[in-house]
Amino acid sequence: MPTFIGDVHGWIDRLDAVLAQAEGEIVLLGDLIDRGPNVPEVLDRVHDLCDRGLARCVLGNHEWMLTRVLGRGDASPN
Protein backbone atom coordinates (compact mmCIF):
# COMPACT_ATOMS: atom_id res chain seq x y z
CA MET A 1 0.00 0.00 0.00
CA PRO A 2 1.43 3.43 -0.88
CA THR A 3 2.22 6.13 1.65
CA PHE A 4 0.69 9.50 0.79
CA ILE A 5 2.39 12.62 2.17
CA GLY A 6 1.12 16.17 1.78
CA ASP A 7 1.62 19.65 3.16
CA VAL A 8 5.27 19.35 4.20
CA HIS A 9 5.63 23.15 3.86
CA GLY A 10 9.41 23.21 4.18
CA TRP A 11 9.83 21.22 7.41
CA ILE A 12 12.53 18.57 6.85
CA ASP A 13 12.22 17.10 10.36
CA ARG A 14 8.52 16.43 9.84
CA LEU A 15 9.14 14.96 6.39
CA ASP A 16 11.86 12.68 7.72
CA ALA A 17 9.61 11.51 10.57
CA VAL A 18 6.90 10.48 8.13
CA LEU A 19 9.39 8.93 5.70
CA ALA A 20 10.77 6.79 8.53
CA GLN A 21 7.32 5.19 8.83
CA ALA A 22 6.58 4.98 5.09
CA GLU A 23 5.66 1.68 3.53
CA GLY A 24 5.43 0.92 -0.16
CA GLU A 25 5.61 3.60 -2.80
CA ILE A 26 5.79 7.17 -1.52
CA VAL A 27 3.46 9.69 -3.14
CA LEU A 28 4.08 13.33 -2.27
CA LEU A 29 0.95 15.39 -2.79
CA GLY A 30 2.47 18.83 -3.12
CA ASP A 31 2.87 21.85 -0.90
CA LEU A 32 6.49 20.95 -0.21
CA ILE A 33 7.45 24.63 -0.03
CA ASP A 34 6.25 27.68 1.92
CA ARG A 35 6.47 28.57 5.60
CA GLY A 36 9.11 26.22 7.03
CA PRO A 37 12.84 26.90 7.39
CA ASN A 38 14.11 23.94 5.36
CA VAL A 39 12.67 24.34 1.86
CA PRO A 40 15.97 23.61 0.01
CA GLU A 41 16.54 20.48 2.11
CA VAL A 42 12.98 19.27 1.55
CA LEU A 43 13.30 19.77 -2.20
CA ASP A 44 16.67 17.98 -2.26
CA ARG A 45 15.27 15.03 -0.29
CA VAL A 46 12.20 14.70 -2.51
CA HIS A 47 14.25 15.09 -5.69
CA ASP A 48 16.58 12.32 -4.53
CA LEU A 49 13.68 9.99 -3.68
CA CYS A 50 12.06 10.60 -7.06
CA ASP A 51 15.35 10.17 -8.95
CA ARG A 52 15.87 6.80 -7.26
CA GLY A 53 12.35 5.70 -8.18
CA LEU A 54 11.23 5.52 -4.56
CA ALA A 55 8.67 8.32 -4.76
CA ARG A 56 6.40 10.27 -7.05
CA CYS A 57 5.49 13.90 -6.58
CA VAL A 58 2.74 16.18 -7.86
CA LEU A 59 2.56 19.96 -7.71
CA GLY A 60 0.61 21.60 -4.95
CA ASN A 61 -0.77 25.10 -5.12
CA HIS A 62 2.40 26.60 -3.61
CA GLU A 63 4.62 24.97 -6.24
CA TRP A 64 2.18 26.04 -8.94
CA MET A 65 2.34 29.66 -7.75
CA LEU A 66 6.15 29.49 -7.78
CA THR A 67 6.15 28.27 -11.39
CA ARG A 68 3.98 31.28 -12.29
CA VAL A 69 6.37 33.68 -10.54
CA LEU A 70 9.29 32.09 -12.39
CA GLY A 71 7.54 32.58 -15.73
CA ARG A 72 6.22 29.05 -16.17
CA GLY A 73 2.58 30.10 -16.19
CA ASP A 74 1.62 27.18 -18.42
CA ALA A 75 1.89 24.81 -15.43
CA SER A 76 -1.49 23.92 -14.02
CA PRO A 77 -2.43 22.42 -10.65
CA ASN A 78 -5.13 20.34 -12.33
What is the β-strand count? 3
Beginning-to-end CA distance, first to last residue: 24 Å
Rg (C-alpha, Å): 12 Å
What are the secondary-structure elements, in order, as H or E?
Answer: EHEHEH
Give an account of the 3D structure.
This protein has 78 residues and is an alpha/beta fold. The chain contains 3 helices and 3 strands; from the N terminus they run E-H-E-H-E-H. A 3-stranded parallel beta sheet has the order 1-2-3. The chain is globular. The model has no long low-confidence stretch (mean pLDDT 91).
Give a brief rundown of this model.
The chain has 78 residues and is α/β, with parallel strands linked by helices.
List the helices and strands and how they pair.
Layout (H helix, E strand, L loop, with lengths): L2 E3 L6 H8 L6 E3 L10 H13 L3 E3 L3 H9 L9
Parallel strand pairs: 1-2, 2-3
Features:
single chain; 78 residues; alpha/beta; three-stranded parallel β-sheet; 3 helices
